[in-house]
Amino acid sequence: MTTRSELTAIVLAGGKSSRMGQDKALIPIEGMPLLQRVCSIAQSCSDTVYIITPWPERYQDLLLPGCQFIREVPLSGESLAHGPLVGFAQGLAEVQTEWVLLLACDLPRLRVEVLQEWVTRLDNVGDDVIAALAHHPKGWEPLCGFYRRRCLPQLLEFINQGGRSFQQLLRQYPVEVLPLAEPEMLFNCNTPEDLALSLVEEASEFRIN
């Protein structure tokens, strides 16, 4: 079975949070900044956690022991608004393990037990498969799942040809479907309304418990 030492985690914290109006990574969920929360869950699955961000200084005072920052840099002739695919490629270039757990920093309902159950499935994934991801009606969920390190050449070729969409990339290669009994785990905070909904449900769960 794939172990913690055989898996690297990459957490993306490069979005502008324009729809939220404040930095999503710093929003407190259950008293903990969202980036710190996601990184702590990632550390439950992997010994190595990279945070990909253009602004490592912004987050260096968070309690992120054992996490390593990789500064995301713009591509030649582009702004930093190149999207998460490019940030992922820059992080993937540093990875040494066969599998990578990729997580967005804005997943307040992420559940470590689901990720750990997914990890147990990686040994049975076919050799031709480049990723193992959950699927929903809109397509793959690219920012909460697993990628093989060896997909980096295909990823760089896609980016060099102007590709910036995970969905377009994933349509070109075999992908393993991961079971998702509770789709709400993939809920992400993009707007103040999303955040309010998340906090209301958090309070409801606290009362029930």
Reading side by side through the largest sheet, how are the strands ordered? 5-4-1-6-8-7-9
Could you give the count of β-strands?
Answer: 9
Whole-number mean pLDDT: 87
Question: How far is the first residue's CA from the last residue's CA?
Answer: 33 Å
Shape by Cα distribution: globular
Q: Count the helices. How many?
A: 7
| Sheet with most strands | 7 strands, mixed
Sequence of secondary-structure elements: EEEHEHEHEHEEHHEH
The Rg value, from CA coordinates, equals 16 Å
Structural class: alpha/beta
Helicity level: 25-40%
User: Which percent range describes the beta-strand content?
Assistant: 15-25%
Low-confidence stretches: 203-209
Describe the fold and architecture.
Helix content is 30%, strand content 22%. It has 7 helices and 9 strands. A hairpin with a 2-residue loop joins strand 7 and strand 8. Helix 3 packs across helix 5 (152-160).
Can you summarize this structure?
The protein is built from 7 helices and 9 strands.
Which helices and strands occur, and which strands form pairs?
Blueprint: E1 7-12, E2 28-29, E3 32-33, H1 34-43, E4 48-53, H2 56-59, E5 67-71, H3 84-92, E6 99-104, H4 112-119, E7 131-136, E8 139-148, H5 152-160, H6 166-170, E9 175-177, H7 192-208
Parallel strand pairs: 1-4, 1-6, 4-5, 7-9
Antiparallel strand pairs: 2-3, 6-8, 7-8
Features:
22% strand; single chain; globular; seven-stranded mixed sheet; 9 strands; 7 helices; two-stranded antiparallel sheet; 209 residues; alpha/beta
